[in-house]
Amino acid sequence: MSCLKIGAISCLVLVFVIIVGSYWLYRVIASNPAFKKGIEEAKAMAQCTVQLQELHRALERYYAKNGKYPSSLGKLYPDYLEDKKILFCPSDKAHSGESSYIYYPPSPKTPDSAVVLECRHHILIEGQPPQVIRLRKDGRIEGAGYRPPRAPSPAKTR
Question: What is the pTM of this model?
Answer without folding.
Answer: 0.70
